[in-house]
Amino acid sequence: MFASFPILLVDDDAAIADILKRVAERVFPEATIAHARDFTEAAAFLANVDKDVFRLVLLDIDLKTDSTGFDFLSLLRDQSYGQLVPVIVLSASLEESKARESYLRGANAFTNKPFTYAAWKTYVEQLRAYWYETVTIPQIRFRQGPDSFTPSNY
Fold it and tell me: Which of 24-38, 47-61, 63-77, 126-140 has the lowest mean pLDDT?
């Protein structure tokens, strides 16, 4: 396991980011959550990936901007390192078509957003149990220079 577990949250709702960070401090202390409010901010994190390598992405597909979470998911999966980072889609929608499109574009899971603090606490506890304690996510390291991506342990 890792001493630090960086997570990128892409969600236009600041309240979601706030509650997720507060819950994580209590039940997933290894997590550090970076928040991107839209496609542009999320893409900026990718541009600095040599500094900000995330172990997990939590992605709202229903961003209220010109570009959707699906657009970011496609951008991420088009990057060589982005193929190794698990993406958990967060949605308030129960539409099967959104779940289907999420998986077709490369999401690892499609989940419904919790609506209460208690539900968020359970969600983060389960997130930690599975993605931090149970599965193995390859560590991504970078060398200097363009196109110098090398995944370690992969």
Answer: 47-61
Sheet bearing 109-112, strands edge to edge: 31-36, 5-10, 56-60, 87-91, 109-112
Among 115, 134, 129, residue whose Cα is nearest residue 20: 115
pLDDT over 90 (residue 127): yes
Show me where the domains of the chain are located.
Answer: 5-137
Q: What is the pLDDT of residues 60-101, one digit of tens each?
A: 999 988 899 999 999 999 987 888 899 999 999 889 999 999
Contacts of the segment 77-82: beta carbons below 8 A, 24+ positions apart = 77/105, 77/106, 79/46, 79/49, 80/149, 81/49, 81/53, 81/140, 81/142, 81/149, 81/151, 82/46
The one-character DSSP state at 47 is: H
| Coil, strand or helix at 5 | strand
Whether residue 133 has pLDDT greater than 60: yes
Instruction: State whether CATH 3.40.50.2300 applies to domain 5-137.
Output: yes
